[in-house]
Amino acid sequence: MSLPPKLDPPTRTLLGPGPSPVSSRVLKALSLPVVGHLDPEFLKIMDQSMAMLREVFQTKNRLALPMSGTGSAGMETCFVNVIEPGDSVLIGVNGVFGTRMVDVAERCGAQVDAVQAEWGSALDPQQFRAALAKKKYKLTAVVHAETSTGVLQPLDEIARLVHENGSLLLVDSVTSLGGAPVRVDELGIDICYSGTQKCLGCPPGLSPVTFNERAIEVIHNRKRKVQSWYLDLSMIEKYWGSERIYHHTAPISLNYALHEALRIVLEEGLEASWQRHRQVHETFVREMHKLELEPAVAESIRAPMINTVKIPERVDDAKVRQRLYDEFNIEIGAGLGPLKGKVWRVGLMGHGSRVENVELLAKALKQLI
Ligand SMILES: Cc1ncc(COP(=O)(O)O)c(C=O)c1O
Fold this sequence. Notes:
binds pyridoxal-5'-phosphate, seven-stranded mixed beta sheet, 13 helices, alpha/beta
């Protein structure tokens, strides 16, 4: 074969639903010398990353580690480790990722009930109350920031109702972690997974997860083995814990990148990061209003890091997004499912959550719509 040319990807301003822009510090970490996955220096890095993940998840959980694989690997990790065939699971569905959780839970053999809400609305705690009053669920799962719609789900009341039922609470924080408070311990979230490529400002490829002792006990008391060898936490915790037993070769360079990305988040401070995401989101709403692009989600439930705006009837959705790529090197996201063609999704996440990016996009859109 003739050799393809050397890679030369464009430098995009990533304002889509993820991946988000990666800072030069994190890119530099990716090019550090690769060491072995049991090298004493790497073991130190692992411990430091776990400690930083605990901070970011706001938890004292022993088990907080990055699974190898993207956010979906984190999602599968949470379900396959806890669920056994026949278990009852309740899932909130108001977008793509709630729908995906139902699919994953069903593949584990769970009996799944769903609390539904229209895409673009929040899940109603009263519907959880009604469902939880009828049945005891082993696990209840909700998405915190539904990336397909831009809704930030209020969690407090649902968390309380789930615990009254005795169910474990699982929260998807793929898009929210680092950009909005997730409060794992305060809310009593038993199981939580995230992704690296959103508000943590790292390339895709790892999925931070955390399980509290109650959830770990459920794993240790399983009747049968976890059906996924690769995602079996009872083995993975022996590599990340004091035993250091080889399970799979950790993606060393990505772990370096996450380590640096977490250092950046904590250097800024979690509160400051949440505030920055909120302020940049507010600037975005103001700037889009000037262009007659209005938010698609009610103000009280808008996720600051993933913004959906309604596309005016006169505007050609695909053409504008293509021209943003071609003429401005900017990526934004299309609508999905029932929102296809109706909204744009603008990610202002992590290193990308900056007023300059809002201004850049506003200037470009002014010429295109
Ligand atoms: C809320 C949410 N959950 C899960 C996922 C799946 O993550 P990944 O695409 O990294 O596998 C995503 C990805 O965008 C997401 O936004």
